[in-house]
Amino acid sequence: VLFIEGDISLWNLTLTYLVGLSLVWAIAAYSTLASCLFLDAGRALALAGSFTALSYFANLLSTVSESLIWVQKLSLFHYFRSMELLVLGQISWLGILVYLGVTVVCLAAALVVLERRDIKN
């Protein structure tokens, strides 16, 4: 509150946590998919961790150069606009859709991978 020189409502704080939680669900979903694909904790962690780190750095890079602004759209972190949520209470519905889409697609793909492995065994 000191940095933004204003008040934060409890509702805006709750919205920020809910949108942040949807980002975490998306990360957990593609991590689950990586676990199902590799069936090896180390390889799954390396893939999911690398993807998360690259996504974060892609978001940072896009703020440095105008020519890299297209990279921003590839990053999951781009859609989490915490300051807009905290101060204004404006939800990025596109961000919610992206997080929900990533979560559903990755969890469905993980389920398909697991079912195919069960059929083979």
Structure description:
- The protein has 121 residues and is mostly helical.
- It contains 5 helices and no strands.
- The protein has helices at residues 10-38, 41-64, 69-72, 82-88, 93-120.
- α1 packs antiparallel against α4 (82-88).
Estimate the strand proportion. under 5%
Question: How many E strands?
Answer: 0
Distance between the termini: 56 Å
Could you give the order of the helices and strands?
HHHHH
Query: In this structure, how is the largest beta sheet organized?
Result: none
C-alpha Rg (nearest Å): 17 Å
**Which runs of at least 5 residues are low in confidence (pLDDT < 50)?**
none
Number of distinct helices: 5
Q: In terms of structural class, how would the helical and strand content be classed? A: mainly alpha
Shape: globular
Q: Could you tell me the mean pLDDT? A: 88
What is the share of helical residues? over 70%
Q: Features of this protein?
A:
single chain, 121 residues, 5 helices
TL;DR of this structure?
With 121 residues, the protein is mostly helical. It has 5 helices and no strands. The chain has helices spanning 10-38, 41-64, 69-72, 82-88, 93-120.
